[in-house]
Structure formats: structure tokens, C-alpha cells
Amino acid sequence: MNIKLHTPKTLKSGSGMSTAKQLLLSIVATSISIALTFGTAAVVDSNKKAKEKREIVMMVMYDMYNSLQSFEQADSMIRRSMNLQLRLAEDTTQFSNISNELLVSLPFVEYTETTERIFSSNIETINTVGNVFFTENVADFYRVRNHYKTMVCDSLFHHLRIDDFSRVGSTLDFNFMTYAIMSGGFVRNMKHLFDQCKLMMDVSTDDMEAYRKERMQMEENSSWDNEEWTTVFEELKALQDKINKAKKK
Predict the structure, then answer these.
(1) How many angstroms separate the Cα of 239 from the Cα of each of 26, 224, 227, 243?
(2) Helical spans, DSSP H, in the chain
(3) How many CA atoms are closer than 13 Å to the CA of 184, on its beta-carbon side?
């Protein structure tokens, strides 16, 4: 006996249930398509924001790193000045050499405020980073950096008279200790803030070194080479010669 299976009339093409099923499948397919589209867009947007955040963090950390290097060097120069005073106190016959060494051992810091201005004045940049504690630490670092320049370097040069290192007595009496104490405190504070920022933003020493090399490479590629500078110099010299000839007429 042959048994034939028949599709229920309710599911035959054109029936109401078949149409409803097709509509449901269409809605499900459309929903999945929309979800995939928006989901992919969300992932792309999230990755973009994560990349922007990392770039901003590394830019700021690199600025802090360079500043810290400069301030640690200045701090070591102040300590060196005190050691030179000690050498002079132990042997005043070395005065001529030591006074010259002191003049080239005065603390000097070098940095730009470009990154600080970009980070501090742009709320979008701060929002992209999205870490309040990092923002506060960076602000504190820049504040201490400014205090160091003002209270240590600028103050030392302001109080330094032209004849302070011209005599043994005045050279020995110059008060480097006050500046050494302030310098050491400021440098320790900046280093602590820098280390905290590295920790909270998951920036390793290797990350910093890789970024430093990348930035140095970029700076080398964008800097003038000797041939370019020679060309510019020759053009300026030729222009100055024309000016001198014109003045004689």
C-alpha cells in the first residue's frame, strides 16, 4: 500500500500561514543584517577610539618622559655644583678651574608646552582618554614642572650675581643647598606621578622605548640635512651681499 504524504493546505504556497512564515523569516533576516551592520560599525568605532586614546596617552607620556629626563639632568648639575664647592673648600688652589666648571654646571631645563596646551585645553582630548585620575596626575606633573623651572632654575639665575664665582669666598658662600633640596623634591614628585600614569594606563618601559624610537625616527626624517641647510645659508648670504652692494650705491 502506497502512502502519500501531502503538504498541509495551511502551508501551501499562497496560504496565510506560508505568507506569515515567509514574513517572519524576512523580519528575522533583516534584523540579523541590521544587527551585524551596526555591530560591525560599533566594533570599528570602538577600535578607533581605543587607538586614539592610546595615541593621546603615549603622546603625553612621551612629553612627561622627556621633561623628566631634562629635570633629572638639572638636578644632577646642582649636586655637581655642591661637590665642586667641596673640592674648592678642600683645596682653594683649584679656584680657577672650579669657578669655570661651576659656570657650565648651572641647572638648565629644556621642554616645550605644546603637548601640555593640547591636553589641558581640549576637553575632547580629555574625554577620549576617559580616565579622571590620569588627567589629574598629568595636570599635577605639569604644575610641578612649572614650579621647578620658576623656583629652581629661574630663581637661581635671578639671585646669581656676575661676581659670585669671581672670588673664593663668594663661590663657597653661594647657597646651592636650598636649590638642591627643592630640586630633589620636585624631581621625586614628578617621577612618582609619571610612574603612576604608566601603571594606570598600562604603559610599560618597553612601550615607552618603542614610542621614543618611533618619534626620534620621525623627527630625523623631518629635520633638515646638511645639504639643505647649506643651500639655505648660501641663499641668505647671496641676499645679504646684494643688500650690502645696494647700500653702497
Answers:
(1) 77, 21, 18, 6
(2) 16-90, 95-103, 114-121, 123-129, 132-148, 155-159, 168-173, 176-200, 205-222, 226-248
(3) 8
What is the rounded CA–CA span in Å between residue 235 and residue 238? 5
Tell me, what DSSP letter sits at residue 160? -
Taking the C-alpha atoms of residue 84 and residue 171, their distance in angstroms, rounded to an integer, is 10
What length does the chain have? 249
Residue 13 gets which letter from DSSP? T
Q: 152-171, pLDDT tens digit by residue?
A: 999 998 888 767 888 999 99
Residue 11 banded pLDDT, cuts 50, 70, 90: very low
For 46-75, b/e burial (b = at least 16 CB within 10 A) is eeeeeeebbebbbbbbbbbbbbbebbeebb
Write out pLDDT tens, residues 203-214: 888 988 888 888
pTM: 0.68
Per-residue burial over 116-144, b if 16 or more Cβ lie within 10 Å, else e, is beebeeeeebbebbeeeebbebbebbbeb
- Please report the pLDDT score of residue 74 as a whole number: 95
81: Cβ–Cβ under 8 A, 6 or more apart, which residues? 102, 105, 106, 176
Contact between 201 and 134 (Cβ < 8 Å): yes
Which residue type sits at 165?
F
Which DSSP state fits 5? Answer: -
CA separation, residue 141 to residues 35, 134, 194, 197 (Å): 44, 10, 8, 10
Cβ distance 35 to 161 under 8 Å? no
pLDDT at 172: 92
Residue 39 has a pLDDT of 56
